[in-house]
Amino acid sequence: MSEIVGRANRDGANLVRDWYAELTEAANRGDSCAYVFVMGSLNEVLKTFDFPVVFPEINSLQTAVRRVAHEYLAQAEDYGYSPDICGYVKADVAVQLRNGDHPMGRIPKPGIAVLTNACNTYIKWAEIWERLHHTPVFTLDVPGTRTGGGQTWQGNQDFENDRRYVEGQLRELIALCEKVSAKKFDIDKLRTILGHANVMSECWKKALACNRSRPSVFNALTDGTIYLGVANGLRGTAKGAQYFTDLVEELAYKSSQGIGTLTDEKWRLSFVGVPCYPIFRRFNELFTQAGGTFVNSTYLWFASGGTNRGFQYDLSRPIESLAEGVLISVRDAMDSMFHPDRVLTETVTEFQIDGVVFHPIKSCRTTSTGLADSRRAFAKEHDIPSLFLESDMMDRRVVAEAPMKNRVDAFFEGLVSRRRQAAIAP
Amino acid sequence: MTVFTEWRGKGLDETLFECRELAENTKYPTVNRWREQGGKVVGHFQVYFPEEIAHAAGMLPFKVRGAPLEPTKADSHFGSYLCSILKTSLEIGLNGTVKLDLFVSHPICDAARNLAAIWGRNFSYPCHILYLPQNPNSSHSVPYLRDEYGRIRRLVESIAGREVSDDDLRRSVGVFNENRRLLRELYTIKRESPWLIAAEDAYALLAIGGMIPREEHNDVLRAVLPLVRARQARTEDRVRVVFEGGFCEQPPLDLIRVLGRMCYLVDDDFLIGLRFIVDDVPVAGDPLKNLAESYIERSSYSPVQHDLRKPKEKMLLQRIDRSRAGAVIIAAAKMCEPGLEEQVAYCKALDARGLPYFVTEFEENMTSFEGVELQIETFLENLLFA
Predict the structure, then answer these.
(1) What ipTM did this prediction achieve?
(2) Where are the alpha helices (DSSP H) in chain B?
(3) Which of B127, B308, B347 is nearest residue A80 as measured by Cβ atoms?
């Protein structure tokens, strides 16, 4: 069984490398592909038409992890983009200006761009491809939750209005894909793809739940990001479904054997926001060195497009069910960003959370604007300490490791002190 | 109910003075007077909101657009790297300056779409997002928006405590059509004879619309515009300039005054949400459908509206052509992501056209204008003496 432990990380890294190798081949052949985003990628539809998919967000974060983001950001800023806009956008602009040159290979040009409104910057971003490449752009508009805790469901007048709107747009997207790909839509192929997506969604939900184990069986910040790459890039594929089936097997095994992601887990933490990619490993070590591990992360919810809900498509009515699934899942992703205090409340007890790390970043207003206020609301409801660390996901100019470490150390000192006081309390 | 009486019985200059005073008053006295008389208030954050629905329920639609003040209470509710308008809008709620019965924001940008959640955590009255369609090119967007407006109507009814009939809505559409006509006239004056009205006066005449009932706004405009047209003023040798970048956070009135001293501001996107429907909304038929169709088919552009039929840089060129402008100020509020992103496309389009432009950033609570004044003056002098 020893080969099971660590398998998901190994396989995940290989799958992502293979994916980039395929994209490089496509770029070298001069093929175009579909540009999509993590929150509502519509992989299900695009794979029906055999579009290779490119996730510019993943391309961009890779430049940060590989410590070359500053070169890409500088090029986009020279082109005219402000230092105060999303770093992902700027890194991608530089990739486009470099004719696809990227540390992981070569990125093909967009033949079609499909995006949701889960992040407004997606819309502004796609406008750049329209201007640079005259790319056909399709915005799948997914209405979100109108008021905190006010989600509507099937049968409700407002839900049905939203569902009809999403379904109508999906049918328009299919027509556009037929035009761009010159292929006829095959509903049976869509069914097969939805079946693979169902397996992945079910397993993703189970995998996340596995971290209720004590000790936790994966680090939501580091291991989780690998799983997330596969969840996005290989959604709707047999390989992706198999990977997640294997993942659940591995995590269940670790859980049954008491194998934790840390040998000495002292603190179970929640992470809220987007990772600090410019110092990805180091950021995590600031916590693991003190025995802290991230047992869950809102990133794994919203950046999987709400796959964490485990929505199961009804294959007997694929398009209608896809519309429902996209609506419910993308809405959930948005809720994870705009109402993190509510979703944290649902998890603190079952995951036995000792502390919460809020990580707003300069680059992303979507995920960061409400974090300070969410933290206040969370603190009112729960006697759980939290840490508020500001940095960035791309731009090392706003990542200050030394002050960050001071604050993390002080956070852990506070946790230790609380635990000691609780131990001696009458 | 009447809330803005200071101008009545006064001449043109004094009326304009009162409008400027009201536009700059961070205590929003007219909103409070409305409440003191028993009225209810719908606060709607920038940019787009079908104010007719609130109006038809007998409520005051109040445009929440920040204020030039320090967000001492609101600051701790936000992180860094955010535009000022978010903070100061919350500030006027937290410090009790303005009391609302309903708050509505829109997914206009990544920051603003967080606002309904933030307000909802801090106030007990309902706080909602109006999900305006972000895919206006879909044939399903009008029916969707019609139903979304229907949801807002039901919400407003529950707060107003009364039914809002189709006839109520039609009456409100009529009032707002008149307002749109008058505002179009104001902008015609700016374009055709900008020497007749100072930039800050034109702005104030527009801005007060977001804080008083539209009937009163119509009264002011109906009284003022003929007097402006009748003014005897000489044209001066100034560059005709379009200002772009005022669709959400507003530049301080003093900055507009400074700009107006140096050039003719012949068109702009200041408070575009008060005049986003560019033509009359049909009165006959289903009023919600008419409003929805007007948003999709007859609305202006801004960096926070994506429509494949309306590339922003082409729309800007149309604005420039229509106003016969010779230069453009491409501005953005500090930390305003959509505004900053759009600057690049605007600049490329203006480069291609060979039109001179000046790129700058502003903040609603900036107090020093010497630097930007010097820069723009130099820019304009270069044009005049080129």
Answers:
(1) 0.95
(2) 12-24, 29-36, 51-56, 84-94, 115-122, 141-160, 166-192, 199-207, 214-229, 253-262, 287-297, 312-323, 337-353, 370-384
(3) B347
